[in-house]
Amino acid sequence: MQIGIIGLGDMGKLYALSFAASGYKVCGADMPLRFADLKKELEPKGIEILVDGHEVSRKSDFIIYCVEAEKIDEVVSTFARSTKFGAIVSGQTSVKHPEIAAFEKYLPEDVQIVTCHSLHGPAFSPEGQTLVVVRHRATDEVYAKALQVYQSLKSIIIEMDDYKEHDRIVADTQAVTHMGFESMGSAWKNAGFFPWDNPAYAGGIDNVKILTTLRIFSYKSHIYAGLAILNPYAQKQVKYYAQAESELFKLMICENEAEFRAKIFAARDFVFHESRQLLLLDDKIMKEFSLSDAEHKQKPNSHLSLLSMVYAWYKMGVNPYDNLICQTPPFKLRLGIAEYLFKNEDMLEESIQTALYDKSIRGDDLEFHTAVHEWASIIGYGDINGYKAHFEAAKSFFANRLNDGRDLSAEMIKRLGK
User: Fold this and answer.
1) Which of 122, 203, 218, 235 has a CA positioned 20 to 30 A from the CA of residue 296?
2) Where is the Prephenate/arogenate dehydrogenase domain (predicted)?
3) How far apart are CA 338 and CA 341, in angstroms?
């Protein structure tokens, strides 16, 4: 079987190399300006570089579009008419609504559609990572062939029949999760300090927050913009998160302890019900991964970002443990540290007391409150360019530590996953 990749960016190259290593014939194409460089880089590794997507589409039995979600319509419309008769077509976008719409609009009716989504970035090998496979339009025989191709990646495959279900889950595991960490990054940038230099962020949970935030900002903004803006379920869930945070923040500044406790405990009892199979992150490991050059005496932290997330899950009636089938490292870490906080009675009590009465952390919480609503507004307006600009502003603030953060977070993910 001939596999063709349209779009040889980071993920496209990762897929091309992985399929070639599994013994498949692989060809691919990208923008004309990259032709010579890609030919020099990839042809020695057994990947044929073609002039454009027309040549890839005419030649290939299994075609994967590895392009940005916001560009999928334009790219598919350009090359769809050249698709080989009876070919299997897939996409590697993180949000499937625009991808499936483009496939249905432009691809010939004889084409079979078995699409996918790798729940990891290009820095990770597909082996052992989660891969969602969505059977949209395929006979049993063709679907079996497509699965065989995907299985060569040695990923953990999650099969779905409905792309809408994929997008609903991913709205939580990716879009809202990313927005929570991005809000932390924007808050720290706006406050003008690095969190690893602040004693309020010296705990194990805070190390996870910091490294995951740096990890997200170390990647390209378009990855996250498409997830948040183009997923129809994401806007609703982001709005819930912003509303949940706002409810809690109002109670904090009014020092309304009774109502604040009632909301937090109701959320705890719903999300961390005794029937859940807990992740149980190791605090000792979390404490090892600090970017600080100094020994700080840890100060209490309200952990408003985590209180808000758990309360939002409760308000939406979402069981985040169900969504672990589409887990990403940031989502699993976020659920893990929220679980750690809420299942530790002493730490949760300290968090509640700090949120309500510790004025020394109130300024940080105000910055976070403001950042959440900035991000929620951008996503609510569907402003992709605004999203990218907001992302890049925070990214530039942390520029000198992004590589350190990505490397350390990768090691932390491995250690905590054991």
Assistant:
1) 218
2) 1-282
3) 5
Q: Residue 243, class by beta-carbon neighbours within 10 Å (0-12 exposed, 13-18 middle, 19+ buried)?
A: middle
What the block records as the tokens of 270 is 């719903």
Question: Strands, E, within 163-272: which ranges?
Answer: none
| Beta carbons within 8 Å of 357's beta carbon, 6+ residues apart | 255
CATH number of 2-161: 3.40.50.720
Mean pLDDT value across residues 234-256? 96
- Give the separation between CA 245 and CA 307, rounded to whole angstroms: 8
Cα–Cα distance, 327 to 296 (Å, whole number): 33
pTM of the model: 0.87
pLDDT single digits (tens) 291-338: 887 677 789 999 999 999 999 999 999 999 999 888 888 999 999 999
Token pair for 342: 């809420």
Question: CA 217, 219, 225, 226: dihedral to nearest 10 degrees?
Answer: -150
Distance from C-alpha of 294 to C-alpha of 230, rounded to nearest angstrom: 42
DSSP for 341-379 reads: HHT-HHHHHHHHHHHHH-HHHHHHHHHHHHHHHHHHHHH
Q: How far is CA 122 from the centre of its chain?
A: 12
Interacting residues of 2 by C-beta distance below 8 A, sequence separation 6+? 24, 25, 26, 27, 59, 60, 61, 62
What does the alpha-carbon distance between residue 338 and residue 356 come to, in Å, rounded to a whole number?
A: 19
418: confidence class by pLDDT, cuts 50, 70, 90 = low
Beta bridge partners of 112: 88
Using only C-alpha atoms, what is the Rg of the chain? 22
pLDDT at 294: 63
**CA pair distance 384, 217, nearest whole angstrom:** 16
CATH 3.40.50.720: which residues of the chain? 2-161
What is the C-alpha separation between 217 and 211, in angstroms, rounded? 10
